[in-house]
Design brief:
InterPro entries: SKP1/BTB/POZ_sf. This protein is an alpha/beta fold. The protein has ten helices and nine strands.
Length: 227
């Protein structure tokens, strides 16, 4: 978060002002990465967040710049006011992901739980992104549900964006504890023409280091059980 006086390139000197957040009694101006201005109330920021407290000297004439775009901030700021909050149900996943990250970054508590619920609901369609979100922000129950959908992917693709503390346990699970037939085939959800693999895997997070252990029972759907 940075503060600047309203001088600079022409595109930033004549920015668009948010229609939703343009109250005349606002006492601080926040600018999105695309130049849009949001005039909001310091009291609301301090009451609902821990990471978005403006500088003590900030005034309406000074501009606090954030790295998020206007679509993200428009949704995020709605959680900071005493009105019906957006339920995010019809928000495209890319925007939902940005709002969820911003809510965690600025610790906007009214938004964090709603984003967590909506991200969890997107597991079947975006398992990679949801698992990484859960890893970054400490939601082990979401990690547990996402991991079986991601484990069949190549190791490099998965760990490239993974928080460092999870790389070693993830490598261990994929290399040593996951059955070969699951490791070498894509995860099927039953909609593919290929015979689906039905994993019955229990993923548990143990201790402060989030060490993964697994219990596997791998059987092809419709096939006979092996001894």
């Amino acid at each position: 978060m940075s503060t600047r006086n309203p001088t600079g390139p022409p595109a930033l000197n004549n920015p668009r002002v948010s229609e939703r957040f343009s109250d005349t009694d606002a006492d601080i101006t926040i600018q999105a990465s695309d130049g849009t201005l949001f005039r909001v109330h310091t009291m609301n920021l301090r009451a609902t967040t821990e990471g978005l407290s403006p500088p003590p000297c900030a005034t309406l004439d000074q501009v606090v710049q954030l790295t998020e775009d206007s679509a993200t901030l428009d949704l995020l700021f709605q959680f900071m006011y005493p009105s019906r909050h957006p339920d995010l149900e019809d928000v495209h996943f890319n925007l939902l992901e940005h709002v969820a990250e911003a809510a965690e970054k600025y610790q906007v508590y009214p938004a964090m739980n709603m984003c967590k619920v909506r991200m969890k609901n997107q597991l079947s369609q975006y398992p990679d992104a949801v698992m990484l979100y859960a890893m970054r922000h400490g939601y082990p129950e979401i990690m547990d549900k996402a991991a079986p959908r991601v484990i069949a992917q190549t190791l490099y693709k998965t760990v490239a964006k993974m928080p460092p503390r999870y790389i070693v346990p993830w490598h261990h699970i994929k290399t040593y504890e996951t059955p070969i037939e699951f490791r070498d085939q894509r995860f099927h959800d039953g909609t593919s023409a290929a015979p689906p693999i039905r994993p019955n895997i229990e993923w548990r997070i143990l201790g402060s280091q989030h060490e993964w252990t697994t219990v596997q029972d791998m059987r092809p759907t419709g096939g006979a059980e092996s001894d």
